Amino acid sequence: MSNYSIKNLEEYYKVYRKSIREPEVFWEEIAEEHFSWHQKWDKVLEWDFDKPEIKWYQGAKLNITENCIDRHLRMSGDKTAIIFEPNDPAEKAQHISYNELRKRVNQFANVLKDKGIKKGDRVCIYLPMIPELAISLLACARIGAIHSVVFAGFSATALSTRINDSDCKIVLTSDGSYRGKKTIDLKGIVDEALKDCPGVNTVLVAKRIQSDIHMEPNRDHWLQPLLDKASTVCAPEIMDAEDPLFILYTSGSTGNPKGMVHTTAGYMVYTAYTFKNMFKYADGDVYWCTADIGWITGHSYIVYGPLANGATTLMFEGVPSYPDYGRFWEVVEKHKVNQFYTAPTAIRALAKENLSYVEKHDLSSLKVIGSVGEPINEEAWHWYNDNIGKGKSPIIDTWWQTETGGIMISPIPYVTPTIPTYATLPFIGIQPTLMDEAGKELKGNQVEGRLCIKFPWPSIARTIWGNHQRYKETYFSAYANMYFTGDGAMRDATGYYRITGRVDDVIIVSGHNLGTAPIEDAINEHPAVAESAIVGFPHDIKGNALYGYVVLKEAGETRLHDNLRKEINQKITERIGPIAKLNKIQFTSGLPKTRSGKIMRRILRKIAHKDTSNLGDTSTLLNPEVVEKIIKEAL
Length: 635
Ligand code: WT7
Prior knowledge:
The protein is an alpha/beta fold and about 625 residues long. The chain is built from 19 helices and 30 strands. Strand 24 (about 485-490) and strand 25 form a beta hairpin. Bound molecules: 5'-O-[(S)-butoxy(hydroxy)phosphoryl]adenosine. 5'-O-[(S)-butoxy(hydroxy)phosphoryl]adenosine binds near residues 499 and 596.
C-alpha cells in the first residue's frame, strides 16, 4: 500500500526516505493504486539532465480526463465538481456535477473535432474565469489536443506572440469579461491579435457580457449553438504517457516568453498527489484557489489536481475588491470553503483595508490556508494567520514554478510545523539542494545558496516548445546534472528551506549577499508601510548599495518623510543589521507589477541606475502608468 495521504511527521520522513531511496518503486506504487490506465508502463523513469531528457511512465496509455471525470461517475456522479462564483454576487452561483461536467466536456470536445482539431494540434484558449475555461482545457485533453492558455489579461501583442510561437489554428474566447465594475472587450483584443496570426482559421466565442461584437464571417462562431447540437458522448483519445498535455508560457529574465511543455502521465500523478496532501482534502470539502486558470496555479490546482481527486473546486470570476474588500471572505462564508489558496500580493492588499471586512464573515469552515507566487513577508504571514486562519488553520507557503508543474517545497498542513516565511520541507520525491556561485554543493545546514533540484520528479516540464536548446541552457547548464530554479534559498539548522527570492535579485553589498525578501519584510513591518521593493545600484565604496521603493498605507502620511526614512532603516538594522540599510528611499504611490502580481524589479533597477532610456518590454505590466511617475520622482 502506498502512502497516499501523509498523516504525521514521522510518516512524512519515512515516505520521504523511501521516495529518495527507491524513487521508481515509490512512484510506481502511487501511479498503480490511484489512477486508471489503459496500459501500464514498461519503465517508470528514464532521465538524463545533460541532454536533457526526462520520461516518466514510458509505455503507459491513458487519458487524463478519464482520471479527472469518468472514474468518479459511478460513486459520485452527482457530486459537485465545479462551483462557479460569478463576478457579480447578485448573479447565481453554478454547481456543475461530475455527470454534467462529463457531458459538457464531451460536447466541447466534439465541437473541437468538428472544427478539424486532432490529437497534437495546439488550441489557444483566451477565456475569462467562466466555466467554459475549465471545460475547454478538459475538452482538449479529451481528444489529445494540446492546450495553450493565455491569461485573459494579456494584451493583443502578448497574445499573438504566444499564438504564433506554438502555431495554434484555433482560438477559444468570449465576447468579453467582467472584472469588478469594468467590462473588458476580449473579442476586440483577439481581433487585434489575429491581424498578426495568419495560421488561425477558427475562433469560437462564448457569450458572457452580451455585448455587440464583430464576428468575422467564416472565421468566428458562437460557441453555445455548436455545443447545443453536439453529442454528449466522446470517446477519450488514448494518449501515451509522454504525449504533451499543454503548453504554458512563462516569462524569462530575457527574450520571448518560454512555452513550457507539460506531458500527460507524470503531470497527472504529481498534481493529484500533491493536491491530496497539501490541502488535506476530505470528501465533501469545498476547495478554493483564487488564481486564474491562465497561470500554472490554476491549471494544476483549480483543474487537474482537484478533479483527479474527485474534489469540489471553486472558480471565481471576480476580484478581491468588488463589490468591496470583503468579497473573498463573503465567498468563503457563502460556499463554506474548507481550503483557501491565494497569493501574498492579495493578502497584502486586503490587510491594508479595515479589519471589519474580514470580521463580518464567518470563516469557521476554513481548515487550510495557502500562499503561492512569491515569498510571503512576515507581516502578511501574521495577518493571514491571525485574521484568516485564526491561529488554527495552518498556512502552507507553497514554493514551486510554472516549470515544476506542482508544489515542490511546502509544509503539509497538520503534519509539518510551520515557521513564518519558511516554505519548510521538500515534498515527497523532491531532492532540493543549495549551490554556491562557484558550483560547489553546500552540504549541511545553516547555508544559503542557489536552489537546485538533483533528481527528476514526475511533473517537471519536459522542454520549451520549439526550443529545446533554450530549455537546456536555462535550467540545466548552470550546474551539471541539476535543475536550476533561478531562486535563492537558505536552509536552517533543522533543514527547513526559506526562499529568499530570485537570484537575479540578490544584491551584493560590501561583499555581503543580501536577499531582497528579508529586507522588504523588515521594511514592511513599519506600521506606515504597505509594500516595498529594493534593488541594488552602483556605489563607489560598497560596490552596490540599496535603493528602496516604498509605498505607504496612506499617501498623506503626515510625519516628515525624513523621519520615516530613519525609522525604516532602524527596522532593517533591527531585523538584519546595519549592512542592509538603504542608501536611498523613494516614497511612491505604487510599484510596477506584472499581471500575475509580481513586482517588475528590472524596471526599478533601471530607474535606480538612472538608466531609463530603454526600459525593455513593459507590455505585461498591470499598471504601466506608475512607471513614469516613479521616474519623475526618482532620487
Ligand atoms: C517563481 C515561479 C508556482 C505558481 C505561481 C508562480 C516564486 C513561487 C513561492 C513561494 C517564494 C515563490 C519563485 C519562483 N515563488 N512561490 N511560496 N515562496 N517564492 O509561478 O510564475 O512560474 O513563478 O515564483 O521565485 O521561482 P511562476
